[in-house]
Amino acid sequence: MSQSTKPQLPSRGVAELLDNLVASEGTGAHAHVKSGALSSGPDAMRNLADAVHFIGLLHGRYPGVVDSAARKAVDPISRRWMEEAAQAFAQERAFLSRIAAAVGPVPSTQGQAQCEAAVAAQRKALDMLAESDRHGCAVGAAIALTLDWRTIRVLLDISAQRLDMNTPRCTLPDLRDTARLAADVADSPAAERAVAFGAQQLIAQHAGLWDLLAARAASRAHA
User: Fold this and answer.
1) CB–CB of 178/210 below 8 Å?
2) What are the extents of the domains in the chain?
3) Is 174 exposed, middle or buried (0-12, 13-18, 19+ CB in 10 A)?
4) How far does Cα 93 stand from its chain's mean position?
5) Three-class SS of residue 72?
6) Lower Cβ count inside 10 Å, N or C end of the chain?
7) Whole-model pTM?
8) CB count in 10 Å sphere of residue 83
């Protein structure tokens, strides 16, 4: 998919567009995740610990993307989905916090302050996205987060299992309900573009986070 911030919308529908965006550019498609650096090898646990802490910096605070987007939801379908997603993410934040506490301190890496500042800037960008008044933009970001989080959750589960922690069930909204919401919100060409834009920007921020984590892993490997 093009990296343009003005996504081209094919006729297959916004729900499939979002699925393809996450599959092609989301967490599971990133080279750092696909390389096995987080799942095998002598540095896997350090890399996982690094990921846990930085995911926490991006998504571990309240209000998050879904919470902010929920305040924009006015129709019953959006509100019902947003409430379910917000409750699920409250549980996900708690799980993330428990893992971060158990895994220990952030792995020592050169340029720590600059890395944290970069993620703080990403957090601000996501806050602005989730608070957008453009109809469909905040919903697109929230949907993309719930879709991409499924892969992130696999990594969190791996971390928890290595720490002998219980892994609670993920209660994110059903994929069919999520697809239905995307279609309902994208009720005009302008709304479709806004939904796609919000989703693409969220996924771009995740890709930037994984780029940063990959660079940090490489820095530690060559230290």
Assistant:
1) no
2) 14-221
3) exposed
4) 12
5) coil
6) C
7) 0.92
8) 14
Q: Quote the CA–CA distance of 101 and 52 in Å, as a whole number.
A: 10
| Rounded-to-integer distance, Cα 139 and Cα 156, Å | 24
Radius of gyration in angstroms for the set of CA atoms belonging to the chain, rounded to a whole number: 17
Q: Are 182 and 14 a contacting pair, CB within 8 Å?
A: yes
Name the class of domain 14-221: mainly alpha
DSSP per-residue codes, the chain: ----SS----TT-HHHHHHHHHHHHSGGGSHHHHTTTTTSSTTHHHHHHHHHHHHHHHHSSSS-HHHHHHTT--SHHHHHHHHHHHHHHHHHHHHHHHHHHHH-SPPP-TTHHHHHHHHHHHHHHHHHHHT--STTHHHHHHHHHHHHHHHHHHHHHHHHHHTT---PPP-PPPHHHHHHHHHHH--SHHHHHHHHHHHHHHHHHHHHHHHHHHHHHHHHHT-
Q: How many residues does the chain have?
A: 223
**Cα separation of the two ends of the chain:** 35
Q: In this predicted model, what pLDDT tens digit does every residue of 120-145 receive, in sequence order?
A: 999 999 999 999 999 999 999 999 99
For residue 106, the 8-state DSSP code is P
